[in-house]
Amino acid sequence: MGRLERWRRVARAGPRVGGALRAGLLRVLGRDGQPAATAGPAPSLTRLDALIDEFAAGQPVRWRVGGQPRPLPAAVDVAAYRIIQEALTDACRQAPGRALAVRLRYDPAGLTVEVRGDGPATPGAGLGPPGLRARAESVGGAFHAGPCPEGGWLIRAELPAPEDEAELP
To answer: Is the CATH code 3.30.530.20 the one for domain 45-165?
Structure first.
């Protein structure tokens, strides 16, 4: 394809792309330019049971919480929820039907999130781990993803949320 034909294709696609961008922005911002009301509740670990239930419908998922749960800074709460959501999504895509386990552990320094799976597939062979790493690091946390010595794989995020900085309800 020559340069002229490429330019013609771009010119023809421009109005479609512009319209799609505009429609997307209107959904996010609303017609008056202000943020639109979200369709559902904000992501939070208080809704973790519902998230797990969504995935457990097609894949066995166990979960448990260690330590004393407490209110977290909003950014850490959302990051933890999204890390779990993205890890489960990647696992279901990469290793459908395999058993998964989610573990949260609260300690005085913060929260550790772990998602484990059995089988050889590592979730997020595409964009998962870099996105998960970025989410953990955005709140000052650390991230690890890789195989487990006993088999399977592990995604682990350590998110800072010192007890003395806990948000009050």
So the answer is: no
